[in-house]
Amino acid sequence: MTIKTILFLAFPNVGEQDLLAPWELLRGLSYDLARDGEDQLDITLGNFDGGVVTTHMGAQLQLDRTLTAEDRFDLLYVPGGIGGGEAAQDERVLDLIRAHHAEGRWVAANCSGVGVVHRSGILEGLEFQAPAVLARRIRGEGGTVADPRRLWGVLPEEKIFTSGGAATVHPSTIALVAYLFGEQRARAMAITWDSYAVHGEPLFSPSGPLANDDPASREALQDGMEKVFLPDVVGAA
Fold first, then answer.
1. Which are the contacts of 122, defined by CB distance < 8 A and separation ≥ 6?
2. What percent of the chain lies above the pLDDT cut of 90?
3. Measuring CA to CA, which residue among 67, 63, 82 is closest to residue 17?
4. Distance (Å, whole) CA 42 – CA 45
5. Which of 48, 121, 150, 195 lies at a 20 to 30 A Cα distance from 209?
6. How many CB atoms lie within 10 A of CB 222?
7. Where are the alpha helices (DSSP H) in 80-214?
8. What are residue 207's DSSP bridge partners?
9. Is the pLDDT of residue 133 over 60?
10. What average pLDDT is seen over the chain?
11. What distance separates the 2 farthest-apart alpha carbons in the chain?
């Protein structure tokens, strides 16, 4: 599938870095493709309520589109943030993820967005990547988070991309561009944004570097925050 349309799901209390870093990088790619006379790449910010969305640190973003259940995109990107907890309980969101996956479209997620995609059920039986804060929680719900974790990973047959927390978002987006649009495009992006100077050749791999987790710090983080980013299912016993 040639990627021509991408939706960034901008739910209330979305994380600014999780949403806007990949959005900006892919908007830049869209500009480069248009400049070079290649296929148009449409990048959309949207959710089911429309209007203005407030991020989890209080910024207000004007959305491009109010979604319906019938809307489809070549790539659906689910970012993270505190609002991922509520999004993981929103059947409109979960059904949109399921529909995209069932139709062979790409689904990508970072940070708590991985928890949202996990709750949709499309990761069942697959090994995938997740942020430290949710790795234990998702495993406890039956998900197979890679151990040890990697900072990002492509599941090409399933057309699923997962990555860790906010620090992974910039490099993982370049890795996703390398996989979907080619290394030449990704390499130009990495050099333009100074990413290559920091991360080097791993940027162009579909499997990210191993996470350098500190077990004690990770457990303390999980104890305090995992149910904030992925609360219990409402009505569950």
1. 97, 98, 101, 107, 158, 160
2. 96
3. 82
4. 10
5. 121
6. 17
7. 84-87, 91-102, 113-120, 132-140, 166-181, 183-192, 195-199
8. 153
9. yes
10. 97
11. 55
Q: Which of 206, 182, 74 minimizes the C-alpha distance to 129?
A: 206
198 burial type by CB count under 10 A (0-12 exposed, 13-18 middle, 19+ buried):
exposed
Q: How many CB atoms lie within 10 A of CB 206?
A: 14
pTM over 0.70: yes
Q: Which residue carries 């305090």 as its tokens?
A: 224
Q: How far, CA to CA in Å, does 157 sit from each of 10, 49, 144?
A: 26, 32, 17
Decide: 120 and 98 in contact? Cβ < 8 Å: yes
**What is the spatial distance between Cα 38 and Cα 51, in angstroms, rounded to a whole number?**
31
Q: What amino acid occupies position 96? A: L
For residue 64, give the 3-state DSSP assignment.
coil
25, 17 in Cβ contact below 8 A?
Answer: no
pLDDT in tens, 74-128: 999 999 999 999 999 999 999 999 999 999 999 999 999 999 999 999 999 999 9
Helix (H) / strand (E) element for 160: namely strand 160-163
How many whole angstroms separate alpha carbon 107 and alpha carbon 51? 24
Q: Is the pLDDT of residue 236 over 70?
A: no
What is the Cα–Cα distance from 220 to 197, expressed in whole angstroms? Answer: 32
Residue recorded with tokens 């929680």:
137
Residue 212: count of CB within 10 angstroms of its CB: 8
